[in-house]
Amino acid sequence: MSGSAITPWVIGNWKMNPVQAEAQQLVSEFKTLLEQQAIDAAQCHLGVAPVAIALGSVQEQLKTAVRPVYTVAQDVSRIAGLGAYTGEVSAELLKDSQIGFVLVGHSERREIFAENVQILNAKIQNALAAGLTVIYCVGESLQQRESGQAEQVVLQQICDIAAVVEAEQWQNIVIAYEPIWAIGTGKTASPEDAQAMHAKIREGLTQLTSYGPQMAILYGGSVKPENAVELAACPDINGALVGGASLNAASFHQIAQAFANTQ
Ligand code: PEP
């Protein structure tokens, strides 16, 4: 086995896309590709994050895939349990529907929906308590990078969650480093810059938890088949959170293949 000892993760974030019929088609095409060109489950974890109303149907469709492909929620309520909270979906309800993974801290949630540290920490606390794995997104803005603050901002975002993550729960956290200026823009961090930030994140995690050395740190921001091989070759890049390219089954499969091939 070459490459990192950490099994990579490739997760597709579909955001507020696509309509049901297209989602079904996308999953169906991806399942066919997995049958034609296998990606060993031991070499890469796979997941897709559809819109909330498609979680059940996508999960059902994925049950007959040739290998596990996890269904990931894009969001979870900051309120735990059940009750009079119109519009909300709690971590317990996700767990009850056999959804084991959730994205928290995506820059679109932080910026567009004004999710601050208190809100994100409540979501993380609830998700972990319910037994979910959290894919926690961090990343700096262009202005923060240009003013030399990128590392400080990202490390602070990592430290922010330490207040609510109990010692053993770190093993249920996957980090996704997503520089905001690279999301949906076609601009990718160079493999050198991404690796440098991932190494810093690894250092920061290792100071916070003994699980730090074995935690997966994914890169996100315009990952596509054309740049996946180079990114996958970086020792501290343990997978990808893929937005736009995950809406194309062949592109998503190629990206997953690039990361699986490092194992
Ligand atoms: C994302 O939203 O998590 C993302 C990385 O998007 P894109 O791949 O489209 O940049």
From TrEMBL:
Q: Which GO terms describe its biological process?
A: gluconeogenesis; glyceraldehyde-3-phosphate biosynthetic process; glycerol catabolic process; glycolytic process
Predominant place of localization: cytoplasm
- State the HAMAP family in the record: TIM_B
Gene3D superfamilies, A to Z: Aldolase class I
GO CC term (a single one)? cytosol
This chain's protein is named: Triosephosphate isomerase
A GO molecular function term, named singly, is: triose-phosphate isomerase activity
InterPro entries in alphabetical order: Aldolase_TIM, TIM_sf, TrioseP_Isoase_bac/euk, Triosephosphate_isomerase, Triosephosphate_isomerase_AS
Question: One Pfam family name from the record?
Answer: TIM
Instruction: Provide this UniProt record's keywords sorted from A to Z.
Output: Cytoplasm, Gluconeogenesis, Glycolysis, Isomerase
What is this protein's function?
Involved in the gluconeogenesis. Catalyzes stereospecifically the conversion of dihydroxyacetone phosphate (DHAP) to D-glyceraldehyde-3-phosphate (G3P).
| Class of this enzyme | isomerase
Q: Give the reactions, separated by semicolons, that this protein catalyses.
A: D-glyceraldehyde 3-phosphate = dihydroxyacetone phosphate
Please report which protein family the annotation says this sequence is part of.
Belongs to the triosephosphate isomerase family.
PANTHER family per record = TRIOSEPHOSPHATE ISOMERASE (PTHR21139:SF42)
**Taxonomic source organism:** Acinetobacter indicus CIP 110367
**Residues of the active site:** H106, E178
- Pathway as given in its UniProt record: Carbohydrate metabolism; erythritol degradation; Carbohydrate biosynthesis; gluconeogenesis; Carbohydrate degradation; glycolysis; D-glyceraldehyde 3-phosphate from glycerone phosphate: step 1/1
Assembly information from the UniProt record: Homodimer.
Residues at which substrate binds: N13, W14, K15, G184, S222, G243, G244
Task: Name where it's found.
Answer: Cytoplasm
The cross-references to SUPFAM superfamilies, in alphabetical order and at most eight, read: Triosephosphate isomerase (TIM)
